[in-house]
Write a structure and sequence with these properties.
It contains 5 helices and 14 strands. It is α/β, with parallel strands linked by helices and about 210 residues long. α1 runs parallel beside α3.
Amino acid sequence: MILEGFPVGSMEANCYIIGCPETKEAAVVDPGAEGGRILRRLEQLDLKCRYIILTHGHVDHIGALGQVKEATGAEVLIHRDDAHMLTSAGSNLSLYMGLSISYSPADRLLEDGDVINVGKQTLRVIHTPGHTPGGICLEVGDSLITGDTLFAGSVGRSDFPGGSHQQLIKSIKEKLLCYPPETKVLPGHGPASTIGEEARYNPFLNGRW
């Protein structure tokens, strides 16, 4: 499996490329900015993007969605509860940054437990509301792409519309910490971690915050 991530844009949101080396199919997760850079990397890896998967609908994770979709024709996937963010500059917060970003509705609305096949690679959708109502994580092999749900040493903000800190912590504890401690955590911002590291040291999860 090909799995790599890199920060994009002024908010340094992590964009991930998941590829099947046999079929050359790929998914781009959270194209937040720098669409040209994302497209060049796909070309360098000799991959064809079939899906654009959004962990949630905030502007720093969807900013280059239009550019990547136009260039690749990929299907756009987002959880049902965040779908409105694609079509509303107010809901995706771009309006509050002096922008007005909106797109066509998603091609597919996701639910908890859905499976996305990228070539011969299988991704599983984990609905983890709290940062946004439709926030998701993705199980990718022995890794979890956690969006803005779980970070190294921290958790996502819950003070945006639709956010809930209580729900966020519940999502993490019930749906993510059940994974083996060696499971890699690939977050929406910042460095990677593991489930074991976060269960042991994350102050939001072990009662130290």
